[in-house]
Amino acid sequence: MRALSALPLEIRQYLLVTGNYWAFTVTDGALRMLVVLHFYTLGYTPLEIAALFLFYEIFGVVTNLVGGYLGARVGLNRTMNIGLALQVIALLILTVPSAWLTVLLVMGAQALSGIAKDLNKMSAKSSIKLLVPDNQQGTLFKWVAILTGSKNALKGVGFFVGGMLLATLGFRGAMLAMAAVLAVVWVSSMIFLRKDLGKASAAPKFRDVFSKSRAINYLSAARMFLFGARDVWFVIALPVYLSSVFGWDFWLVGGFMASWIIGYGIVQSVAPAITGSRSGHTPGGRAALIWALALAGLPAGIAVAMAAGYSPQVVLIGGLLIFGVLFAVNSSLHSYLIVSYAKGDGVSLDVGFYYMSNAMGRLIGTLLSGWVYQAYGLEACLWVSSLFVLMAAAFSLGLPRQGRLQAS
User: Fold this and answer.
1) What is the spatial distance between Cα 106 and Cα 90, in angstroms, rounded to a whole number?
2) What letter would DSSP give residue 283?
3) Is the per-residue pLDDT at 6 higher than 60?
Protein backbone atom coordinates (compact mmCIF):
# COMPACT_ATOMS: atom_id res chain seq x y z
CA MET A 1 0.00 0.00 0.00
CA ARG A 2 2.92 2.34 0.81
CA ALA A 3 4.48 1.67 -2.61
CA LEU A 4 1.14 2.49 -4.26
CA SER A 5 0.82 5.80 -2.40
CA ALA A 6 4.32 6.78 -3.55
CA LEU A 7 3.29 6.64 -7.22
CA PRO A 8 2.24 9.83 -9.06
CA LEU A 9 -1.47 10.66 -8.82
CA GLU A 10 -2.07 9.95 -12.52
CA ILE A 11 -0.57 6.45 -12.22
CA ARG A 12 -2.61 5.68 -9.09
CA GLN A 13 -5.81 6.80 -10.80
CA TYR A 14 -4.94 4.77 -13.92
CA LEU A 15 -4.46 1.68 -11.74
CA LEU A 16 -7.78 2.30 -9.97
CA VAL A 17 -9.66 2.78 -13.24
CA THR A 18 -8.02 -0.31 -14.72
CA GLY A 19 -8.73 -2.39 -11.61
CA ASN A 20 -12.40 -1.41 -11.67
CA TYR A 21 -12.59 -2.22 -15.36
CA TRP A 22 -10.90 -5.59 -14.83
CA ALA A 23 -13.24 -6.67 -12.03
CA PHE A 24 -16.32 -5.63 -13.98
CA THR A 25 -15.11 -7.36 -17.14
CA VAL A 26 -14.71 -10.75 -15.46
CA THR A 27 -18.33 -10.68 -14.28
CA ASP A 28 -19.52 -9.46 -17.70
CA GLY A 29 -17.83 -12.28 -19.58
CA ALA A 30 -18.96 -14.87 -17.03
CA LEU A 31 -22.56 -13.64 -17.16
CA ARG A 32 -22.70 -13.91 -20.94
CA MET A 33 -21.36 -17.47 -20.93
CA LEU A 34 -23.69 -18.46 -18.08
CA VAL A 35 -26.76 -17.17 -19.90
CA VAL A 36 -25.85 -18.77 -23.26
CA LEU A 37 -25.06 -22.20 -21.81
CA HIS A 38 -27.76 -22.29 -19.11
CA PHE A 39 -30.61 -21.36 -21.42
CA TYR A 40 -29.35 -23.58 -24.22
CA THR A 41 -29.60 -26.54 -21.84
CA LEU A 42 -33.15 -25.46 -21.02
CA GLY A 43 -34.07 -25.97 -24.67
CA TYR A 44 -33.93 -22.40 -26.00
CA THR A 45 -33.13 -22.05 -29.71
CA PRO A 46 -30.15 -19.92 -30.84
CA LEU A 47 -32.51 -17.12 -31.92
CA GLU A 48 -34.30 -17.17 -28.54
CA ILE A 49 -30.95 -16.99 -26.75
CA ALA A 50 -29.96 -14.03 -28.93
CA ALA A 51 -33.25 -12.35 -27.92
CA LEU A 52 -32.21 -12.58 -24.26
CA PHE A 53 -29.35 -10.19 -25.09
CA LEU A 54 -31.55 -7.81 -27.08
CA PHE A 55 -32.06 -5.30 -24.26
CA TYR A 56 -28.40 -5.66 -23.23
CA GLU A 57 -27.28 -4.40 -26.62
CA ILE A 58 -30.10 -1.86 -27.15
CA PHE A 59 -29.50 -0.21 -23.80
CA GLY A 60 -25.78 -0.27 -24.52
CA VAL A 61 -26.42 1.92 -27.57
CA VAL A 62 -28.48 4.39 -25.54
CA THR A 63 -26.11 4.34 -22.57
CA ASN A 64 -23.03 5.26 -24.58
CA LEU A 65 -24.85 8.22 -26.08
CA VAL A 66 -26.33 9.50 -22.80
CA GLY A 67 -23.44 8.26 -20.66
CA GLY A 68 -20.90 10.43 -22.46
CA TYR A 69 -23.06 13.48 -21.75
CA LEU A 70 -23.52 12.40 -18.12
CA GLY A 71 -19.78 11.82 -17.65
CA ALA A 72 -18.97 15.31 -18.95
CA ARG A 73 -21.50 16.86 -16.55
CA VAL A 74 -20.96 14.92 -13.31
CA GLY A 75 -17.54 13.29 -13.72
CA LEU A 76 -16.29 9.93 -14.91
CA ASN A 77 -15.82 8.63 -11.37
CA ARG A 78 -19.58 8.81 -10.82
CA THR A 79 -20.47 7.13 -14.12
CA MET A 80 -18.00 4.34 -13.39
CA ASN A 81 -19.39 3.80 -9.90
CA ILE A 82 -22.98 3.84 -11.16
CA GLY A 83 -21.98 1.13 -13.64
CA LEU A 84 -20.50 -1.06 -10.91
CA ALA A 85 -23.61 -0.68 -8.73
CA LEU A 86 -25.98 -1.52 -11.60
CA GLN A 87 -24.05 -4.70 -12.40
CA VAL A 88 -24.40 -5.85 -8.78
CA ILE A 89 -28.16 -5.26 -9.00
CA ALA A 90 -28.39 -7.13 -12.33
CA LEU A 91 -26.59 -10.14 -10.88
CA LEU A 92 -28.82 -10.18 -7.80
CA ILE A 93 -31.96 -10.08 -9.96
CA LEU A 94 -30.85 -13.34 -11.57
CA THR A 95 -30.58 -15.10 -8.19
CA VAL A 96 -34.35 -15.53 -8.00
CA PRO A 97 -35.72 -19.12 -8.01
CA SER A 98 -35.57 -20.85 -11.40
CA ALA A 99 -39.35 -20.77 -11.78
CA TRP A 100 -39.21 -16.95 -11.78
CA LEU A 101 -36.57 -16.73 -14.52
CA THR A 102 -38.94 -15.67 -17.26
CA VAL A 103 -37.67 -14.31 -20.55
CA LEU A 104 -38.76 -10.78 -19.61
CA LEU A 105 -36.97 -10.92 -16.25
CA VAL A 106 -33.74 -12.13 -17.84
CA MET A 107 -34.00 -9.48 -20.55
CA GLY A 108 -34.56 -6.82 -17.87
CA ALA A 109 -31.49 -7.96 -15.93
CA GLN A 110 -29.51 -7.96 -19.16
CA ALA A 111 -30.70 -4.41 -19.83
CA LEU A 112 -29.25 -3.27 -16.50
CA SER A 113 -26.06 -5.17 -17.24
CA GLY A 114 -25.79 -3.53 -20.67
CA ILE A 115 -26.18 -0.08 -19.11
CA ALA A 116 -23.59 -0.97 -16.47
CA LYS A 117 -21.07 -2.37 -18.94
CA ASP A 118 -21.10 0.63 -21.24
CA LEU A 119 -21.00 3.18 -18.41
CA ASN A 120 -17.97 1.37 -17.05
CA LYS A 121 -16.19 1.05 -20.40
CA MET A 122 -16.91 4.61 -21.51
CA SER A 123 -15.62 5.92 -18.17
CA ALA A 124 -12.45 3.84 -18.28
CA LYS A 125 -11.53 4.68 -21.90
CA SER A 126 -12.31 8.39 -21.45
CA SER A 127 -10.23 8.59 -18.27
CA ILE A 128 -7.05 7.56 -20.08
CA LYS A 129 -7.22 10.66 -22.31
CA LEU A 130 -7.07 12.84 -19.19
CA LEU A 131 -4.20 10.98 -17.51
CA VAL A 132 -1.71 11.21 -20.42
CA PRO A 133 -0.19 14.52 -21.61
CA ASP A 134 -1.51 15.50 -25.05
CA ASN A 135 1.95 15.51 -26.63
CA GLN A 136 2.71 11.89 -25.66
CA GLN A 137 0.73 9.98 -28.30
CA GLY A 138 3.00 6.94 -28.12
CA THR A 139 2.30 6.63 -24.40
CA LEU A 140 -1.41 7.14 -25.04
CA PHE A 141 -1.47 4.27 -27.57
CA LYS A 142 0.45 2.06 -25.14
CA TRP A 143 -1.88 2.78 -22.19
CA VAL A 144 -5.03 2.34 -24.30
CA ALA A 145 -3.66 -0.92 -25.71
CA ILE A 146 -2.85 -2.25 -22.24
CA LEU A 147 -6.27 -1.29 -20.87
CA THR A 148 -8.14 -2.71 -23.87
CA GLY A 149 -6.04 -5.85 -24.17
CA SER A 150 -6.10 -6.70 -20.48
CA LYS A 151 -9.85 -6.11 -20.43
CA ASN A 152 -10.40 -8.61 -23.23
CA ALA A 153 -8.03 -11.13 -21.70
CA LEU A 154 -10.05 -10.91 -18.50
CA LYS A 155 -13.29 -11.19 -20.43
CA GLY A 156 -11.89 -14.49 -21.63
CA VAL A 157 -11.17 -15.42 -18.03
CA GLY A 158 -14.80 -14.49 -17.37
CA PHE A 159 -15.95 -16.98 -20.04
CA PHE A 160 -14.00 -19.71 -18.30
CA VAL A 161 -15.25 -18.60 -14.88
CA GLY A 162 -18.82 -18.66 -16.20
CA GLY A 163 -18.51 -22.24 -17.45
CA MET A 164 -16.77 -23.31 -14.23
CA LEU A 165 -19.31 -21.63 -11.93
CA LEU A 166 -22.23 -23.12 -13.86
CA ALA A 167 -20.72 -26.60 -13.48
CA THR A 168 -19.87 -26.19 -9.77
CA LEU A 169 -22.26 -23.70 -8.15
CA GLY A 170 -25.16 -23.72 -10.59
CA PHE A 171 -26.74 -20.63 -12.15
CA ARG A 172 -28.05 -19.02 -8.93
CA GLY A 173 -24.90 -19.70 -6.90
CA ALA A 174 -22.74 -18.19 -9.64
CA MET A 175 -24.76 -14.97 -9.59
CA LEU A 176 -24.49 -14.64 -5.80
CA ALA A 177 -20.73 -15.19 -5.83
CA MET A 178 -20.09 -12.61 -8.55
CA ALA A 179 -22.39 -10.02 -6.95
CA ALA A 180 -20.53 -10.30 -3.62
CA VAL A 181 -17.09 -9.79 -5.15
CA LEU A 182 -18.18 -6.87 -7.33
CA ALA A 183 -19.87 -5.14 -4.37
CA VAL A 184 -16.49 -4.98 -2.61
CA VAL A 185 -14.91 -3.42 -5.72
CA TRP A 186 -17.71 -0.86 -5.93
CA VAL A 187 -17.25 0.28 -2.31
CA SER A 188 -13.48 0.64 -2.83
CA SER A 189 -14.05 2.70 -5.98
CA MET A 190 -16.46 5.00 -4.16
CA ILE A 191 -13.73 5.76 -1.63
CA PHE A 192 -10.59 6.11 -3.72
CA LEU A 193 -11.46 7.29 -7.27
CA ARG A 194 -10.85 10.99 -7.90
CA LYS A 195 -14.02 13.05 -7.62
CA ASP A 196 -13.62 15.48 -10.55
CA LEU A 197 -12.22 13.14 -13.18
CA GLY A 198 -13.50 14.02 -16.66
CA LYS A 199 -15.94 16.74 -15.64
CA ALA A 200 -16.19 19.34 -18.41
CA SER A 201 -15.21 22.94 -17.63
CA ALA A 202 -18.57 24.13 -19.01
CA ALA A 203 -21.77 22.10 -18.71
CA PRO A 204 -22.42 20.58 -22.17
CA LYS A 205 -25.79 20.68 -23.91
CA PHE A 206 -27.43 17.40 -24.84
CA ARG A 207 -27.03 18.10 -28.56
CA ASP A 208 -23.26 17.90 -27.98
CA VAL A 209 -23.50 14.11 -27.68
CA PHE A 210 -23.58 13.86 -31.49
CA SER A 211 -20.07 14.19 -32.85
CA LYS A 212 -19.29 17.07 -35.19
CA SER A 213 -15.98 15.55 -36.24
CA ARG A 214 -15.82 13.91 -39.67
CA ALA A 215 -13.00 11.64 -38.53
CA ILE A 216 -14.91 10.43 -35.47
CA ASN A 217 -18.04 9.80 -37.52
CA TYR A 218 -16.14 7.66 -40.04
CA LEU A 219 -14.26 5.85 -37.28
CA SER A 220 -17.53 5.15 -35.46
CA ALA A 221 -19.09 3.66 -38.59
CA ALA A 222 -16.02 1.47 -39.15
CA ARG A 223 -16.20 0.33 -35.52
CA MET A 224 -19.86 -0.62 -35.85
CA PHE A 225 -19.19 -2.95 -38.78
CA LEU A 226 -15.99 -4.33 -37.26
CA PHE A 227 -17.73 -5.50 -34.09
CA GLY A 228 -20.77 -6.67 -36.00
CA ALA A 229 -18.35 -8.84 -38.01
CA ARG A 230 -17.07 -10.49 -34.84
CA ASP A 231 -20.34 -11.00 -33.04
CA VAL A 232 -22.30 -12.29 -36.03
CA TRP A 233 -20.57 -15.63 -35.57
CA PHE A 234 -18.84 -15.46 -32.21
CA VAL A 235 -21.63 -14.58 -29.75
CA ILE A 236 -24.34 -17.20 -30.35
CA ALA A 237 -23.42 -19.29 -33.40
CA LEU A 238 -19.95 -20.41 -32.28
CA PRO A 239 -20.67 -21.62 -28.70
CA VAL A 240 -23.86 -23.37 -29.85
CA TYR A 241 -21.97 -24.98 -32.78
CA LEU A 242 -19.19 -26.17 -30.48
CA SER A 243 -21.72 -27.64 -28.08
CA SER A 244 -24.16 -29.19 -30.59
CA VAL A 245 -21.91 -30.23 -33.50
CA PHE A 246 -18.58 -30.95 -31.77
CA GLY A 247 -20.33 -32.28 -28.66
CA TRP A 248 -18.21 -30.19 -26.25
CA ASP A 249 -19.36 -29.88 -22.62
CA PHE A 250 -19.67 -26.64 -20.56
CA TRP A 251 -16.07 -26.80 -19.35
CA LEU A 252 -14.64 -27.25 -22.83
CA VAL A 253 -16.80 -24.58 -24.50
CA GLY A 254 -16.14 -22.08 -21.71
CA GLY A 255 -12.43 -22.94 -21.62
CA PHE A 256 -11.98 -22.63 -25.36
CA MET A 257 -13.86 -19.33 -25.62
CA ALA A 258 -11.87 -18.07 -22.64
CA SER A 259 -8.55 -19.05 -24.19
CA TRP A 260 -9.45 -17.31 -27.46
CA ILE A 261 -10.43 -14.08 -25.72
CA ILE A 262 -7.33 -14.17 -23.49
CA GLY A 263 -5.06 -14.58 -26.50
CA TYR A 264 -6.97 -11.85 -28.33
CA GLY A 265 -6.46 -9.54 -25.36
CA ILE A 266 -2.75 -10.26 -25.20
CA VAL A 267 -2.37 -9.37 -28.88
CA GLN A 268 -4.28 -6.12 -28.27
CA SER A 269 -1.87 -5.24 -25.46
CA VAL A 270 1.16 -5.56 -27.75
CA ALA A 271 -0.50 -3.96 -30.79
CA PRO A 272 1.82 -0.89 -30.64
CA ALA A 273 4.76 -3.23 -31.28
CA ILE A 274 2.95 -5.08 -34.08
CA THR A 275 1.99 -1.89 -35.91
CA GLY A 276 5.47 -0.41 -35.52
CA SER A 277 4.42 2.57 -33.38
CA ARG A 278 7.34 2.03 -31.02
CA SER A 279 9.59 3.35 -33.77
CA GLY A 280 8.01 6.75 -33.19
CA HIS A 281 5.23 6.66 -35.78
CA THR A 282 1.74 6.45 -34.30
CA PRO A 283 -0.85 4.90 -36.64
CA GLY A 284 -3.52 6.75 -38.59
CA GLY A 285 -6.36 5.93 -40.95
CA ARG A 286 -4.09 4.20 -43.46
CA ALA A 287 -3.14 1.61 -40.86
CA ALA A 288 -6.80 1.06 -39.97
CA LEU A 289 -7.60 0.45 -43.67
CA ILE A 290 -4.71 -1.97 -44.22
CA TRP A 291 -5.48 -4.08 -41.17
CA ALA A 292 -9.20 -4.21 -42.01
CA LEU A 293 -8.42 -5.44 -45.52
CA ALA A 294 -6.09 -8.08 -44.06
CA LEU A 295 -8.99 -9.39 -41.95
CA ALA A 296 -11.76 -9.18 -44.56
CA GLY A 297 -11.18 -12.40 -46.46
CA LEU A 298 -10.54 -14.68 -43.50
CA PRO A 299 -14.10 -15.56 -42.37
CA ALA A 300 -15.10 -16.25 -45.98
CA GLY A 301 -12.00 -18.43 -46.34
CA ILE A 302 -13.04 -20.47 -43.31
CA ALA A 303 -16.54 -20.90 -44.79
CA VAL A 304 -15.14 -22.05 -48.15
CA ALA A 305 -12.82 -24.57 -46.48
CA MET A 306 -15.66 -25.98 -44.36
CA ALA A 307 -17.94 -26.25 -47.41
CA ALA A 308 -15.16 -28.05 -49.32
CA GLY A 309 -15.20 -30.83 -46.74
CA TYR A 310 -12.02 -30.12 -44.83
CA SER A 311 -12.00 -31.06 -41.14
CA PRO A 312 -14.24 -28.50 -39.40
CA GLN A 313 -12.22 -28.83 -36.20
CA VAL A 314 -8.96 -27.97 -37.92
CA VAL A 315 -10.40 -25.25 -40.15
CA LEU A 316 -12.53 -23.58 -37.49
CA ILE A 317 -9.99 -23.67 -34.66
CA GLY A 318 -7.09 -22.63 -36.89
CA GLY A 319 -9.14 -19.90 -38.54
CA LEU A 320 -10.25 -18.60 -35.16
CA LEU A 321 -6.65 -18.22 -34.02
CA ILE A 322 -5.72 -16.15 -37.07
CA PHE A 323 -8.97 -14.15 -36.85
CA GLY A 324 -8.20 -13.36 -33.20
CA VAL A 325 -4.78 -11.89 -34.03
CA LEU A 326 -6.00 -9.74 -36.93
CA PHE A 327 -9.17 -8.62 -35.17
CA ALA A 328 -7.21 -7.70 -32.03
CA VAL A 329 -4.92 -5.37 -33.98
CA ASN A 330 -7.90 -3.76 -35.74
CA SER A 331 -9.71 -3.22 -32.44
CA SER A 332 -6.65 -1.81 -30.69
CA LEU A 333 -6.01 0.65 -33.53
CA HIS A 334 -9.61 1.89 -33.34
CA SER A 335 -9.43 2.24 -29.55
CA TYR A 336 -6.31 4.38 -29.83
CA LEU A 337 -7.66 6.52 -32.67
CA ILE A 338 -10.87 7.50 -30.86
CA VAL A 339 -9.02 8.54 -27.72
CA SER A 340 -6.52 10.47 -29.86
CA TYR A 341 -9.22 12.19 -31.95
CA ALA A 342 -11.44 13.09 -28.98
CA LYS A 343 -11.46 16.56 -27.42
CA GLY A 344 -9.73 16.82 -24.05
CA ASP A 345 -12.50 18.90 -22.47
CA GLY A 346 -15.56 16.71 -22.11
CA VAL A 347 -13.75 13.75 -23.67
CA SER A 348 -16.55 11.36 -22.74
CA LEU A 349 -18.87 13.02 -25.29
CA ASP A 350 -16.76 11.87 -28.25
CA VAL A 351 -15.86 8.52 -26.68
CA GLY A 352 -19.49 7.89 -25.76
CA PHE A 353 -20.64 8.57 -29.33
CA TYR A 354 -18.01 6.18 -30.68
CA TYR A 355 -18.93 3.40 -28.27
CA MET A 356 -22.58 3.91 -29.11
CA SER A 357 -21.63 2.76 -32.61
CA ASN A 358 -19.64 -0.10 -31.08
CA ALA A 359 -22.76 -1.17 -29.15
CA MET A 360 -24.88 -0.87 -32.30
CA GLY A 361 -22.48 -3.23 -34.06
CA ARG A 362 -22.75 -5.72 -31.21
CA LEU A 363 -26.54 -5.48 -31.30
CA ILE A 364 -26.69 -6.13 -35.05
CA GLY A 365 -24.13 -8.92 -34.78
CA THR A 366 -25.89 -10.64 -31.86
CA LEU A 367 -29.28 -10.65 -33.56
CA LEU A 368 -27.83 -11.86 -36.86
CA SER A 369 -25.78 -14.50 -35.05
CA GLY A 370 -28.94 -16.14 -33.71
CA TRP A 371 -31.09 -15.70 -36.82
CA VAL A 372 -28.54 -16.49 -39.55
CA TYR A 373 -27.17 -19.50 -37.67
CA GLN A 374 -30.63 -20.92 -37.03
CA ALA A 375 -31.77 -20.35 -40.62
CA TYR A 376 -28.61 -21.00 -42.66
CA GLY A 377 -25.84 -22.32 -40.40
CA LEU A 378 -22.36 -21.24 -39.32
CA GLU A 379 -20.96 -20.86 -42.83
CA ALA A 380 -23.53 -18.15 -43.63
CA CYS A 381 -22.53 -16.30 -40.45
CA LEU A 382 -18.93 -16.33 -41.68
CA TRP A 383 -19.88 -14.84 -45.06
CA VAL A 384 -21.77 -12.03 -43.33
CA SER A 385 -18.69 -11.44 -41.15
CA SER A 386 -16.47 -10.91 -44.19
CA LEU A 387 -18.98 -8.50 -45.73
CA PHE A 388 -19.06 -6.46 -42.51
CA VAL A 389 -15.24 -6.23 -42.36
CA LEU A 390 -15.23 -4.93 -45.94
CA MET A 391 -17.69 -2.24 -44.86
CA ALA A 392 -15.36 -1.31 -41.99
CA ALA A 393 -12.50 -0.99 -44.48
CA ALA A 394 -14.64 1.21 -46.74
CA PHE A 395 -15.35 3.66 -43.91
CA SER A 396 -11.66 3.65 -42.93
CA LEU A 397 -11.00 5.33 -46.29
CA GLY A 398 -12.53 8.50 -44.77
CA LEU A 399 -10.02 8.69 -41.90
CA PRO A 400 -6.98 10.99 -41.91
CA ARG A 401 -4.18 9.01 -43.55
CA GLN A 402 -1.43 9.72 -41.05
CA GLY A 403 -0.92 11.18 -37.60
CA ARG A 404 -3.54 12.36 -35.17
CA LEU A 405 -6.39 14.82 -35.37
CA GLN A 406 -7.63 16.95 -32.49
CA ALA A 407 -11.39 16.87 -33.02
CA SER A 408 -13.06 20.22 -32.80
Assistant:
1) 9
2) -
3) no
Mean pLDDT of the chain: 79
Interatomic CA distance for residues 61 and 67, integer angstroms: 10
pLDDT in tens, 118-139: 787 777 766 666 656 555 666 6
Assess contact for 117 and 11: CB atoms under 8 A: no
Alpha-carbon radius of gyration of the chain? 20
Q: What DSSP line would sit under 347-369, residue for residue?
A: HHHHHHHHHHHHHHHHHHHHHHH
**Buried residues in 208-234 as b, exposed as e (16+ CB within 10 A):** bbebebebbbbbbbbbbbbbbbbbbbb
DSSP for 36-105 reads: HHHHHHTT--HHHHHHHTHHHHHHHHHHHHHHHHHHHHH-HHHHHHHHHHHHHHHHHHTTS-GGG--HHH
Return the number of other C-beta atoms located less than 10 Å from residue 401's C-beta.
11
CA separation for the pair 183, 177 (Å, rounded): 10
Q: In whole angstroms, give the CA distance from residue 405 to residue 295.
A: 25
Residues 334 and 219: beta-carbon distance below 8 Å: yes
pLDDT tens for residues 265-312?
Answer: 788 777 777 776 554 566 777 888 999 999 999 999 999 999 998 988
How far apart CA 25 and CA 7 sit, in angstroms, is: 25
Angle 90-13-57 from CA coordinates, rounded to 5°: 30
